[in-house]
Amino acid sequence: MPADRPVLLRLASASRTFQMGEVAVVALRNVTLDIYEGEFLVMVGPSGSGKTTLLNLVGGMDQPTEGSVWYRDIDLATLSTRALTRYRRETIGFVFQFYNLIPNLTARENITVATEISQDPLDPDEALRLVGLEPRRDHFPAQLSGGEQQRVSIARAVAKNPELLLCDEPTGALDFSTGKQLLWLLLQMKNRLGKTIIVITHNVAIGEVADRVVRLRSGEIAETHVNEKPRSPEEISW
Fold first, then answer.
1. CA distance readout (Å), 42 to 25, 145, 172, 201
2. CA-to-CA distance for 114 and 103, rounded, in angstroms?
3. Handedness of CA 126, 129, 133, 138 (dihedral sign)
4. Distance (Å, rounded) from C-alpha 224 to C-alpha 48?
5. Which of 90, 118, 153, 227 is deepest in the core (most CB within 10 A)?
6. How far apart are CA 6 and CA 34, in angstroms?
């Protein structure tokens, strides 16, 4: 990545171990990684490689058992539960594989719930316009297709106006065509709004649209690759 691009997040020798009875399970082992402002970063690897654990650490949903996770000049590993909640609320937008929409709220109401706890949110209707769903603002999740529900979940995350979008297998429940539309949408969030985006996925093809790909294996970084010329979603197949 360009040396003059500011570092937004830094993992420094970060490890995470879970205690399962008498057995210690190492989910992440001594990971050092810089994540830059405005970067589209894709993390790939099989189940159990540490992708979700790493996402949880940078998202403030968990803390390392060893090492540090820095957001600018703040070490997340030292924060209280209340401070981590504030960090997630003010800094992070989450996009999940299965949408997590509230079924008895309309698309607009699902987004409004997120904006009501944010410091400097976007207008919910503007967020829906960004994802091309303003005409569906009064529809409930059951009245939307899977791709539309995922777009609402992105609008909900973006409406918080966070610095960082964290996406956990965002195309996993979508067909090929809808998955490509989603990737175009994430690129729009990066290019138009300047968001830093981290996507974790099993699908290595998605890495072709990213600025950088980090491959994890057995809780460690196995490989890092910078895409000098990222491909467009139309150029990839999976």
1. 25, 26, 14, 7
2. 15
3. positive
4. 18
5. 153
6. 10
Q: Which two tokens stand for residue 42?
A: 């894709």
Q: What is the pTM of this model?
A: 0.91
pLDDT above 60: residue 175 = yes
Q: Predicted confidence band at 237 (pLDDT cuts at 50, 70, 90)?
A: confident
User: For residues 215 and 222, is the Cβ–Cβ distance under 8 A?
Assistant: yes
- Within 10 angstroms of residue 74's Cβ, the number of other Cβ atoms is 13
State the DSSP string of 87-115: HHHHHEEEE-TT----TTS-HHHHHHHHH
pLDDT, tens only, 84-131: 999 999 999 999 888 889 999 999 999 999 998 888 899 999 999 989
What whole-number distance in Å separates Cα of residue 6 and Cα of residue 90?
19
Q: Domain 38-50+81-235 belongs to what topology? A: Rossmann fold (3.40.50)
**Interatomic CA distance for residues 87 and 114, integer angstroms:** 14
pLDDT in tens, 129-159: 989 999 999 999 999 999 899 999 999 999 9
For tokens 């010329």, name the residue: 229
101 within 8 A of 141, measured Cβ to Cβ: yes
Give the span between the Cα atoms of 174 and 35, in whole angstroms.
27
pLDDT tier for residue 1 given thresholds of 50, 70 and 90:
low
Tokens of 147: 């791709």
The secondary structure of residue 134, as a DSSP letter, is G
Give CA separation, 182 vs 59, 63, 64, 164, in Å: 21, 30, 31, 17
